[in-house]
């Protein structure tokens, strides 16, 4: 127990590290969301998009709290955006939502934790009405995405089409492989046009293959290649390792990508054009393994057994490390195991997998940390381990075998009534004996730093300071000040306060003018009686509320220029209270 004080001090400094590390959160990490509309019909579909930037292969966000909508369809896409010659990767989760009720429907904030930092999207409010608000374009106006754009300036002074030259090509490392053998699939983009973003819109699956997508890189570097006398900018935009699961002719289907072209300063179109391209399908011939190689891992591997200590006390846990390293399907790889016997007992291993995505394929290792307790003392022998795999380059089964080794076990076993202190192996011991645990004494803990008030103060002060800064930066500035509902409530409270402070009937007009300006963004010079009526009518404000609002507006404006129309204090208070009630009812409708 003597180590408790040292551990506490270490925890203190580790905590400080994570607290101040929160200020160094990478600015390239983003977790955002958007909707394609803020008003929809009950029969419409709303597109809700959740976007990750700078996070490789994020897991799907939790949308279980989405109660006002039904999820019709989901999809995932990856995208590159090229900004000032620098590319960034984005992962989009797209949800097609159908409203389940009329009125105000809520898309609650989504949360995502990455490297210990929590990211959060804003809340979205959708006004749902009967029927459908989607407009169907006339048949004559519909057109497919063109493969050219127009520039109004040419040598002859007349407009002419400018060719869009974008190609996709898929490549595989081998045309003929064996079951379980690794195949590298690469998609390259060839373009003579400037591109803003690349978005994969196909399903990321390959029938007949176990596949492992390479992480989408944060940025990609392009090269140049000349084809038929034309110079193309070339980018490797996606890559995957494929492992065929059966013999025969397997087809890799085409993958479709959407490209956003950079905005042309001479183009008639204000928005960037989008074009869709697809890779070609590829056929792969897959051969069966030999009878001896079936059900074995395929690739090239090495077996490593690390013994650690050669001498150990009988009451300690002995940890063996078994590693299989090489090239192949690391995620499905199983490693050989030691078996318990009369001299020792083997407990469940801790398994970890390390995968490296390299240019020529997936390489990695599977590591097992094997805890072992001893039943007897003296020299204990361990047998060799064997690992078999099929080497496709040699077309035969390869056997990797470790060397046998011995461990000298000393001491006498402690009684089962001893005080205990668990070792660092993290062994799961449910229902097992605990004779390996050692006796220990408890030393005086009173003088350790973590028991003093100074320790608590040193820990709490930086935490409070960092929390205040974090709350201000990531909550108040990033969400509250940008949240529409929050700003709407602030505006409503300010308007109600200003109305209650009015002492002159003519001042009501100025408060209402400011209110409509904040709600609609229209300048004060453009707000008139007629404009106010248009705003209320287009916002579906009820007739009674609309007429009373406009009547008070007009009376207030008139009282500024006609002293004879000034009302009594009681009439002023009555109209102000009525106006505040009306604004509270119509505030959510005005945009």
Which helices and strands appear, and what pairs or packs with what?
Blueprint: H1 3-21, E1 30-35, E2 39-41, E3 46-53, E4 69-83, E5 86-99, E6 103-107, E7 111-114, E8 117-120, E9 124-129, E10 148-151, E11 160-163, E12 166-172, E13 176-178, E14 183-191, E15 195-200, E16 209-213, E17 223-227, E18 230-244, E19 248-252, E20 256-261, E21 274-278, E22 282-287, E23 299-306, E24 311-313, E25 318-328, E26 344-346, E27 350-358, E28 361-374, E29 378-382, E30 386-391, E31 396-401, E32 405-410, H2 453-476, H3 484-500, H4 508-520, H5 529-538, H6 543-559, H7 569-586
Parallel strand pairs: 2-9, 13-22, 24-32
Antiparallel strand pairs: 1-3, 3-5, 4-5, 4-15, 6-9, 7-8, 10-11, 12-14, 14-18, 15-20, 16-18, 17-18, 19-22, 20-21, 23-25, 25-28, 26-28, 27-28, 29-32, 30-31
Structural class of the helices, strands and pairings?
alpha+beta
The biggest sheet, with number of strands, parallel, antiparallel or mixed sense and barrel status, is:
7 strands, antiparallel
Tertiary shape: elongated
- Tell me the β content: 35-45%
- Count of DSSP helices? 7
Unreliable stretches (pLDDT < 50, length at least 5) are 1-12, 14-27, 137-161, 265-270, 417-440
Helical percentage? 10-25%
Strand order of the largest sheet: 1-3-5-4-15-20-21
The end-to-end span amounts to: 66 Å
Compute the average pLDDT: 78
Number of strands: 32
Taking Cα atoms only, what radius of gyration do you get, to the nearest Å? 35 Å
Structural commentary:
The protein has 591 residues and is of the alpha+beta class. It has seven helices and 32 strands. The strands form nine sheets. A seven-stranded antiparallel sheet has the order 1-3-5-4-15-20-21, with no helix packed on it. Strands 12, 14, 16, 17 and 18 form a five-stranded antiparallel sheet that branches. Helix 3 runs antiparallel to helix 7. The longest helix has 24 residues.
